[in-house]
From TrEMBL:
Species classification: Bacteria, Bacillati, Actinomycetota, Actinomycetes, Streptosporangiales
Source organism of the structure: Spongiactinospora rosea
Protein name as it appears in the record: VOC family protein
VOC domain boundaries: 3-118
One Pfam assignment: Glyoxalase_6
Gene3D superfamilies from the UniProt entry: 2,3-Dihydroxybiphenyl 1,2-Dioxygenase, domain 1
């Protein structure tokens, strides 16, 4: 017997607004039934588990123990710029002079995530 990952749950203070941010990040829609003020919302990814946003009363207080890693279809640098324009904040720089590494950003509620090099950037080195 095995278990299948159904969703990745993200606790937050405003489920609908944070789901809208991640919908823009991924380019995939919210569940069609989701509305502002909903306690739970979903971003419908085409492959793998959905992103499930669950409204909780407490705010984030420590670093995430689990986080998302994003591999852009553009360059890493262009994606970092795009995500910052959407409302992400820059947390840490783990990019190296040889082009490897990643950037750590946080969503509008402070949940950290990584931006990796694109497949094309990886193939070029």
């Amino acid at each position: 017997m095995v278990s299948v990952v159904q969703n990745v749950a993200i606790d937050c203070t405003n489920a609908y607004e944070l789901a809208r941010f991640w919908s823009e990040v991924t380019g995939h829609p919210l569940h069609p039934d989701d509305r502002p003020g909903d306690d739970e919302t979903l971003v419908m990814l085409p492959e793998g588990p959905v992103l499930h946003f669950n409204q909780v009363p407490e705010g984030k207080t420590v670093k995430n123990r689990i986080h998302l890693c994003l591999r852009p279809d553009s360059t890493r640098e262009a994606e970092v710029d795009r995500l910052l324009a959407l409302g992400a904040t820059f947390v840490a720089d783990h990019r190296k002079p040889d082009g490897t590494g990643w950037a750590v950003l946080a969503d509008p509620e402070g949940n950290e995530f990584c931006v990796l090099r694109s497949a094309a950037e990886r193939a070029a080195t």
